[in-house]
Structures are given as C-alpha cells and as structure tokens.
C-alpha cells in the first residue's frame, strides 16, 4: 500500500470537526469491545460444556464399574446357589441365609426356584408359598433352550412378595445339560441407584440402568408408569464398544434437556446412562455472562459519557480561549463554567492560582494552597516522581504541553484521581516557562468503576488459575519423572510427588533444599547454568546426577525448563522436568566410544570399505578404498556410484546391490573390474540408511585358486581312476587357462619309446592336431633334442627363426603360432615319458608363473602315467588272486570262502527285511561210478555241466558253490517261505536229472538234497552249511534221490501248506468260502451307512479260518484272482438284495489284492459284476492299500482313474502304516482314508498314536476326503474321534464282522450310536489328585466360580475322562501313583493340545518345574497350600486363553 493511499484517510479525518472525530473513534472502539466480550463468552460457554462432559464421562465410568461389580457378585451368588440346590435341596435354605449374610446389606435379594414345568418350587420370602405357575415369565421362556447365561429381566412385581424387583436368573442344568428349571435372584431396583445422591448431579440429574431393548431396569428418580419405562430411541450398544457415548437431548420421560453419558457393561446387554440438566450445567456460565454483559454495557456508557464530557470540555475551552483574548478575567470564569478545575502557575513568583471548581474538587479554601511547593505536597508519593519529571520537562521547554493522570490528597485525607493538562503560555528570556495554565478533571468515580471491573476479572482469572494448577498437579503426580516450577527469580516453589518417591526427600521442595538431591559435584555447574538462564530468559537445559533412594545411588537426569511470559513478555513462571536418562546416557557414551573405535578400525583395515546412501551417493570411503580405486575421497563423497563408475551398470554389482537393498539381505560376489584390471571380492550389507560395502583385491589369489582348483580336479579324477586321455585333457586345460591364446598338447611315448602312444590336444585346430598325430618320433625328438628335454625344458620364442624346428615352420605359419614351449615329462627314474608342448601367438618365452604351472602339470602327468602302468600290473595280479581265493577253478562256481561271504550277506538282508534265508546242500548220486569207469576227465566234464545247469536254474541273487568232490551248496536269497524253497529245489533236482553226454555216451545222474533255514537252523554260514549237509546225509540214508529238511517241523509245515494249497483250489467250487460284514457307522447321525466285506473259509476239517491263514497262500499261487472275483460278485449281490429290501443307500466295501488290482481284465470284471448284480456303481467301495498303489504309481493311477470313471468309490486302507505317500495322495482319485486300528487302539493314552490320527483326519479334511477309523472298541476312543471330527467308525464297539443274515437282523433292529447334543460349551475343569480332601476342596472352590468340575484320582482315569468329556482346563497334582503329574500333563498336551494345563503340587521341586515349563506341558504352576484368589485368577486366564485359541481356529477355518 502506498503512502498516498494511507495519507488520504488521515487527511479526511483531520478535516473533520472535533465532534466528528470523537464520534468516529467511539464507533470503532465500541464494536471492538463487544466483539471481544462475545468471543470471551463463547469460549467460556464451550469450556463449561466440555468440563461437564468430562465430569459426566467419569461419573458414567464409575457408575458402570459399580453396577458391573454388583451384577457379577449377584451372578456368582446365583451360580453358587444353583450348585447347592442341585447337590442338596434340603439344606438349600441355610445356604440362602448364608449368602444373604455374606453380601452387603443393601442387596437384600430374594431367591426363588422354578422347576422344569414352570412352577414355583422354593421362595426365600415364604417357604410355604403355593406352587405358582411362573412359566409365563420372560426368564423362564428364555432359559427353556438350556443356554447357561445370566438373564436380567425388566422390573416386575413379585407374585409372592408383592414388591417390585429386578430378576437375575440362570438355568438349572441336570446331567447331560438337561433343563431342570430356573434359579431367580430378585433385587430391588433402588440397589443400583443407591449412591446417585453422592454424585452431585444437581436437582434434575438422573442415573439409569437400561437394557438393549430400551427397557429401564432402574432409574433415579424412579419411573412409575409402564409406557414411560421403555425408551423409544436407543443408542446401538454394539457400536459403542468400550467407549462412552455423549449427547444432549430432551428426556423422553420428563422433557428436561440433559447432557447424557452412556456406557455399556462388558459382556452384558445392559448400559448405564448418566444425565445432567443442561440448564444447571450452564447456571454458573449464565451468571458470569450477565455480569460481563452488565460490565460491558456500563463500560460502553462510560465511554460515551467520557466522549461526551471531553467533547463538552473542548467546546467550553474553545469559547474560553476566545473570551481570554478579550479578557483574562472572562477566560478564567469561562473555564469555571466548564466543570473542570483551572490552575495558573506563575513561574517567576512560584505562585499558583486555583479556580473555585478546583478547590471544591479537593475541598481546600482560598488561602490554603498558594504555591507550587504546596501543590507538590498534595501529590501521592507513588505518583510524585513521574509528575515532577513531566512538569520539569514542560518548564524546561522540552515539550509545549503535558497531560497525565495521578492522585492528589483531598482535605478530608482521601485520595482522588485527577486528570491534569497544562500548556506553556509564556516564557522568559532563557526559554524557560514563565507561565503555565491548565485544568484538573476529577476521575475518581471512573477509576473506582475500572478498579471494580479489574478486581472482578482478577477473581475469575484466579479461579481459573486455581483449577488449572490443580489439573496440572494431578497430571504431574501421574508422570514417572520430576516435574517442578519456579518463580521468575528462580526460586523452586513446587515439585510433584515423584521427587519424594524417587529421592526420599521428606519435606516439601523449596528454593533452598532442591540442591540437596543433586550430586555434590554437579551443584555448582547446575546453579551456574540456571542463573545464566534466569538472566537471559533462555530455555534451561542441562544434565546432572540425582540421588535415588531405592539403591542409594546417583543417576544421571536430563533437566529442562522453559519460561512462561505474560502479554508484555515478562517472565512470570518457570516450568521444568527432570527425567532419568542414566541408562540412555551410558548407552550413548558406549555408542560414541564404539563409533570412534569403529572409525579407527575402518581406516586401519586392509579391506576397502565404503558406504552409499539410499540415492547411491558415496557417504564414506576409507584409505584402502582410495588406494584401490586410485581416487581421493573428496572426489567421491556426495557423488553417485553409477555416474562415477558406469561400467558397473547392468552387471553383477548392479544386480546384487539392488537385490540387497530391495530384499534387505547380505550379498557376496566376485567381480572383475576392467578399468583397474582387477578381481574383487565384494560383500554388501543393507541398512535403513543405505548400503555398506567391503572390497578386497583377489586378483592374485583368484589366479592361484583357479589353478589349484583345476589341479585338484585332475588329482581327484586320477584318484577316482579316470582314464589317461581324460587326465591328459584336463592337464591341457590347466595350461591353456593360465595364459592368453595358448594351445597345449600332451604327447606320450609308448613303452618302447619308439612312437607316440597318446597325443592329446583338444584345443588345437584339426589340421595341426593331425600333424602331431603323424609326427615321426625320430624326426621330432632326435637324440640331441631328447637330451635337451632330458636336461630341462626347451622354449623357442619363434619357431620360424629356430633352425631345429624347420619341419614345423609351415604349420606354425599356417595357424599363427610363433612360440613353442616344450616341457619334458619324466618318470621317477628320470626316464623321458613324453612332452608337454605349448603353442602361442606371443613371440616370447614363458614367465615364472607359467613355467611353474608347466612344471607342475608335467609332474602331475608323469604321476598319472606311472600310476597307470603300476595299476595295470597290480590289477592283473589282484584279479588272479581274488579269483583263486573265491572261485573253484574247475567249475567256475564259488568256493567255500565266497560261499560263506554270500551266505552272511543273505542272512543280513533277511534280518533287515524280517524274512527267511535258505541253504541247500546237493550231492550227486553215483558220481563215483563215472570217475571209476570213464576217468577223472569225464568226471570233470560232468561237474562242469552240473555247474552250468545250476547257474541257469538259480536266480540273479542266488549263489551256487562247489565245496568238494561232487557236493554243491546253494544259497537261495529271494525265497520267501518253505513252499517256494521246495519248488526251487525240486526244479533244480529235475534239471540235474536230465542226461549228460560224455563223449559218445549219455549218463543219467540223480541227486540228493538237504535244506536248512535261517534263523531257525542256525545263525552263521558254517552252521547252516553243516545242518544242510546233515539233512542231505539223512536223505542219503533214506535211499537218496529226495529232499530232506534239517527240522522235522519245517517239513510238516511244508506238507501242510501243500495240502492247504490243494484244498484252496477247490474251496470256491465246493462253496466253502463265505463273507462276513462289519458295519460302518456315521458318527454325526449314528446310523449304519456301509459295510466292509471280510472273507472267511469254512474248511471241512480245520473249521472256520480267517484270511490271515490263507490269503498269502492265495496270493502266491495266483488263486487270489478267482477268489477275489467271487468276493466282488457275492458282496455286490448281497448289497443289491439289501437295497431291494428297503435299506437303500447302503455302501459295500471290498478289498483288492495286488494281483487283482493289476490283472489286465480288472475293469471288465468290475463292470460285469455291477451289471450282473444290478448294483449302482456309487454303492461299491473298492479298498486299496498304500503298498499296492505305490508299487507302480503311474500304472496304479491309470487303473484308479478308470475305476473312478465307472462311478465306484475308492478307499485307501490302513493309511499311515505303509509308504505314507503324502506327495502322491493329492494325485490319487480316492474318496476315503481309513485310519488303521493300530493307531486307534491307543489313541486316548499314546500321544504318538493320537497325533497320527489327528493328522490323518486334518489331512483328509483339507483334501475334502471322508475318514473311517477302524478297530474302535471303547467309548473313549469313539468320543476322542468324535471330538476331532472323524466321519465314520467301524469296530467291536458297535459290532464285529457278522454273517449276512445276522447283519440283516441288525439292520432290522435299526441299531444306532447315541448322538451328542450340540449344546453350548460348558466351562469344565478336570481335577486330578489322589488326595480326596484336596480334590473336595478344589471342587467346592471351583463350583462357586460357576465351573463344571470333574474329578480323577490318577492319570489313567484322567485320560479316560478327557476322552469322554469336553474339558477346557486340567488342574493336576505332581506326585500321584502310577503316573506323575508331568508325564500326565505331557500326554494331555500331545493327545488333547487344546486343553490348558495347570500343575498344583506340594512338592516344589525346581527340576520338575523347569522340566514342565520347558516342555510346554504346564500353563501355570501353583504350590500347595494354594491361594484361592491366585488359583482362580490362573484358571480364569486359562479359560480366556482357551477361548482365544478356539476363536482363532474358527476364524482361520
């Protein structure tokens, strides 16, 4: 804005007449005044409402906590009395009286019992009350469902007592959670509002307890009529949560506008409401508003009057000045008429003239005040100095006029405020004032009004300050640090309670004693800094040590204070805090020391170290980095890495650095840096500030390591027996990789040294390699050159210039190779074995490193060549010795040495597989006759032919040996049982019985055999050979030509097996096979949903036989295929018959063996059976085992998919006992998993079995498969499987396998399993303790808390109860007979992982506690005797933890 635009309004204002100017000023001041007043009143209004809302919130919280505590107390009483009624109804009245005596007197509750039919069974008001029908009550209808929750009724009138009350009810639950009635506790509504009079809510204040449906349960003041007892509009309890809802609204009951605070009671459909009248809240504000508005109006009137007075005075003075020009006398009396006192001071005579109005103003006579000195004495001492200074300046001519306010003493001794103006009207020769005239205006009344208003403002400010200081002190006392204040001069005048708690200071802190809590060495520095802050007004900040009384030590504190200034900038207060930073200071000191040490270390390390920030700019480089990069650090710091070294962009450094930053992981890599021609090993560590990088020059070590690696490969290949050409090729690679543009060739002389036996040069061009292959040794290595190589290497820098290499000039020129380095390969006896030749484009001789590599390679090649020669000789000798030591030289069969070794191996394999091993001793009959008649040569031919026939007849893992003469011993490795052994030996004996042609004659020989079996007939090879020989001798004695077992029983079993095999072949035709059926029951419905068909054999002589006795025989003989077809046909026909009889939907399961499953026509058989029987495919369940489908996975998968295409159901039987093929399970199109009975048998006692069963169920559910548990025999097993959601069960608990007729009878009886009721989960605790007294005390304590309590005297009994009941918490003793507490709880943890476990023991052994805690078996530990409150709190925590885990599982599901 320009000066011209500002000056224009001022010129306009100056041209206005004086009244206009005053009117304009008043028009500006008065609106500003009222704007300030209105803003101040609005702020006070908002503050009053905010403080009222805060108070209402606190009252609502207090009221909610009190009501919630009362309801919980009433609920506990109801639960306890319910248990008493269920345990002993006859003594229930005594328990009621005790409960009424325990609870505080204002409760005065009444107890009623309503039976299951809704009739009154007991009333504490009238023990002889009639059996009233209370089934119409709201609480009775609510509890009919058996839900065990507290119910709070609306206020009702008792039909026995006739009094109004609130009824708190819970259901009576008999065994099995059966509804048995309702227990009712009636409490007067006034009980919940009994303390409302103490809340100081005002005359129209209210408190109320309201249900979620709007029903007012209790209210103060009370509500009488029913329609007014229900609120039409209600807040949503669910959305309120734990916060307080505040709003202002007219009451729906009495129309009073109130500020309401609503708060919901936790876990209850109730809320409390506190209401305060809005008019009563604003009452103090209204008084203050009226007072301020009155003052503002008075001040406005005063401003108008003053303006009017000033305007009038100015007009009068203007007329007086006009009259003074005519006459001084008329001027003076004109001023008298203006109402102000006039004075006229003559400086030469020091006399003062005062007008009559002036004298009336102060009450003095005409002669009492005549001089200036007398006038000075009337001025108030406090004002005299400034008045005299002003008049002195006026007299001295420094100012032409003066005007000021001050006090003067009237004649009656009072002080009156005067507004004095003066103007010089005459001066002397020296410029001093000779005459001054002026006026006095009496301001006393105005000053009194201003002072009254000021005092009122100070009073309000003091009240506000007091409230502020109280809140400040409350907040300060809640802070864990010293909070203090000081006067402007620095005197400490307040500190919060923490200073006493922390330092132990007894008296209140003050300006003198505050330094006593400081360390003596810190007092002077602290005072010096404090005084400097007082002088400068700057923030006070320092550190000093403060005494801590808890450990009698001094700890470092951070002290900080800020000055508080008024509107004039004057300091009025200091506010400060002193905070314990001892640990932080020590940590910072340590960090600084470590940082300095780190900096020194980084500068001294031999590795290059640098850091970059998140923008890839260098932030630090050490000295080694400068040396390696050949750059000064000042040239790098602040520069971007990729701009300084663009060669890194896109390479491994770029990739790895980016990965480290993005994935926050450490990276390490090697990189070749072309600008420096160096290799570096780089390690990078990311942080929130960027990347820290270590670099190390590995150029030399890399070349060395590369050579060592290649050499190690060569040596490893040599040790592994690699071929010589392969070793020579590796040697050439080592040489070529040590330099640039090198080609290497290795040429080895033959054993006679006349020709090159090996020439290896893989990198040479084919033409040059062909030249080397055609080299004439005598031309290439004439005697003189051989002598040179024998003496040392021969290096030619340029073959074209060397006359001794004339023959190679053309070839070298053709391929660009100039230099040729020959390094002789010599043996350990210094014999020349060949040469290592290197061809290179560089016309030079090798450097020292290359010469060392050539020498080492030549030496390594010589070792390989010599080793090859040695190994060839040694291998030939070893082969000959090994053959002679293990084989019979005549027949080529194993001798006794190898026989024992093979027999031992076979026995070890049989042990690992759980099988048997067989050894056969065979002796040729009449062999001596061949020797005697035809000679030994003919006998040798017979033995050789016998050996050949034995080799042909035996399997690949069997062994045949000749142990002497005409005796042979066989080891049968793959023979499972005696039946297979007999078949094998009979086949061999038949083969040996064929005629043998010797010369022109054919000879017929027979043989005799003896068998021994491992481990029954011996556990060593020699023992088995001996016993087989004994069995053979017995057969010889019996006439020869037959087979004899060493053990008679073995032979009997073999004969029995042969008999069974024959009978089994005719069992189907004779109708001896039959099926039994075992039901499969759905756990959810309890109904039979299927059966499993189990084969039985009714043998005419041996009786009923289970499959275990004949299925393996059927498998081995192949009879399983026709038997399996019969089972499939019979089972499907029976199922179809049951469907026709009305039992539709019944599923039949049939087991398939391996031979059945893999038979080529399986699909045709299944299709034909289904068509023949008329059974729908979906009702046939084909059961397979893991081992069966894992034999040939791809083939099995194809068959299973084809079966699924027919519509049949597939089950995987005995899951978990075989291969556990989890990776293939999702590929198989199966519908059902069956848990093997071996896991079900110990499922409630063995943690491993329980874990496997749970895992199978969980796995099946995740794959959406059905689960059937086999072998369920007890209620405990059934309950456990039901808890973990097993789908179906089968076993003796429901029914054993029974014939078809008996199964049909079972269907007709409609037998079913009992189905568990889906009631709400009841809080149940299992107490396990062998002491009856302890268990009884625990049961009483826990029942009073509302828990269902089970009891067991041992761990085994406890596991049984856990299987049968839904238990959430277990409390167990440690020392118990049979099973200790830790073992019991460990089993509980593994079998029932969702149950929370608490140990209670009188033997607080530390080892036991540590073991239980570390194993996770124990949630809490309590010692005997226990503290009731602590134990109850732990059990409550255990239930909360159980619910959290349960809800988390539900949410996850």
From TrEMBL:
Residues 1057-1311 form the EAL domain. Pfam families: dCache_1_like, EAL, GAF_2, GGDEF, PAS_3, PAS_4, Response_reg. GO terms for molecular function: kinase activity. Residues 1324-1439 form the Response regulatory domain. Residues 402-455, 540-593 form the PAC domain. The modification 4-aspartylphosphate is found at residue 1373. The keyword Transferase applies. Residues 327-398, 468-537, 594-645 form the PAS domain. InterPro entries: Biofilm_reg_signaling, CheY-like_superfamily, EAL_dom, EAL_sf, GAF, GAF-like_dom_sf, GGDEF_dom, His-kinase-like_sensor. Keywords: Kinase, Membrane, Phosphoprotein, Transferase, Transmembrane, Transmembrane helix. The chain crosses the membrane at residues 20-41, 291-311. GO terms for biological process: phosphorelay signal transduction system. It comes from the Bacteria. Residues 915-1048 form the GGDEF domain. NCBIfam families: GGDEF, sensory_box. PANTHER family: BIOFILM ARCHITECTURE MAINTENANCE PROTEIN MBAA, DIGUANYLATE CYCLASE DGCP. This is EAL domain-containing protein. The lineage of its organism: Bacteria, Pseudomonadati, Pseudomonadota, Betaproteobacteria, Burkholderiales.
